[in-house]
Design a protein that fits this description.
There is one protein chain. This protein is about 60% helix and about 10% strand. By secondary structure, the protein is α+β, with helices and mostly antiparallel strands. The strands form 4 sheets. Strands 1, 2, 3, 4 and 6 form a 5-stranded antiparallel sheet that branches. The protein has a 4-stranded mixed sheet with strand order 5-10-9-7. Helix 13 packs antiparallel against helix 18. It is extended.
Amino acid sequence: MQLGQAVKNVGRLRFIIAVFAKHGFVDVVHRMNLGKFLPGRLGAYAEAQADKTVPERLRLAFEELGPTFVKLGQLLSTRSDLLPEAFIEEFTRLQDNVQPLSFEVVRAAVEKELNRKIEDAYSYFDPVPLASASIGQVHEARLLSGEKVVVKVQRPEIDKIIETDVSLLAFLAGLLEKYVPETRVVGPVVIVDEFFRTLYFELDFIVESNNIIKIAENTIETPEIVIPKVYRNLTTHKVITLEKLEGIRVNDLKALDEAGIDRKKIVEIGAKAFFNWVMIDGLFHGDLHGGNLFILPGNRLGIVDFGIVGRLSQKSRDQLASMVMSLLIEDYENLCYEYAELGAAGAAIDFEGFQREVRNTLSPYMGLTLAEVNIGRILIEATKIATKYNIKVPGDWMLVFKAILTIEGMGRTLDPEFDLLAMSQDLVKDLVKNQYSMQRLSKELLWVAKDAAALLKILPRQIRWMFRKFNSNDFAIEIKSPDFQEIRNQLDLNGKRMSLSVLVAGLFIASSIALSQGVGQVLGQYTLPFVVYFGGACIFLVAFIFNIFKS
């Protein structure tokens, strides 16, 4: 499938390879056996870039290749467990270098999606975009009823462009793992698969609108947090209409002070809301930064742009609570056990070595006050060590850790005394206690009892049916295995070759007998039976040799 897409889109593949070669990755292109796709002489692409580092060159290549690669770089910027810090720093600088869509194109896209004239949906629609990015752009508008809104419009055909690029990325990732072994520790194939799933949801504005509505419902008891209203009658898969939040950006400290905003209170509100989303709801904003946070009148915090969200199951939330509790009580051994269970570690890992390295790396934090400990940084450092010991941490977890790190950095910018770990410890302790509460245990026992009852209901019938089959005359056990199928195929192939070799030998023997007897019609110097037998033997011999080389 991936090879077929590569062949089908060979023009785009050539361009991608040429861009990487231009930015100094000719050697990698050749190692992947893709040198034949490089147009012209190699010298034109292997230009000297001694003044640029490898991470910088890779970032520039991603920017030149457009939306899909920019989004991939932004995803990689959250994977500090897999990539060195230099790459992370470069990927966080990735910019969407795209020209804004003309208003005519935007109008056509909106009218096609909403199935009505733009004037029939909005009393005002600003032709100049508020922001323009690789996936789409945002315009300010006003509803017929007078409310101020923002309208995000997806770029026409961007979904097809991204689908093509992701298929080619999957093809290239497979070649990287095959021919460039040092990339296997990063896992290019797994990263592309994770990237596809993330981008698939980001391209669907219906999914984004549902995420906004769910998070708003989860935050309804916290009036200090403002989530924009979704206008569903003006929202489709490629257009989304949201309430416009007007306030001061959270990173504009001068404006906040001039407006008399209580920065300490804002930080406390935001941190508590985030921990509630992660620890209790399991659905959280995955791209919290200064550009997505606004301070509204009344010391309220407005949050926008829910294209990227993270999800944690109940089990994952329990594990995260246990990990944070381990940090609170400085129990790094339990922290390692949680990582091992989280990353589905096999029995072959050096668990003692993992524990020892975590302890040595994190021991400098022991004895510090909570205010001096950066919980996000500790979790990311521990994740890096886990990766070294082949404990693969799921992408959603890195989204959580990166969000915690960002919130801590932003929080201490607004309030130098901000202490996320101390703020979260009461909530975490309650969550850990809740794991062993009678109500929780009763609920889990109820599910166990339900499953056991279902099993007991069908077990006698299954046992009776098993014995009936066992006592039947045609009873047989069928064992299926990919290895058995391979053996069977090999036996079939060997049998065919044996038959062919016997046939060839028989024809050569028959030709020898015919030659010695000299009986039959004469063709030149040889009799007809000899010519037929010998010719047939040669034909089947050539077929036999061709079959061996082909397989």
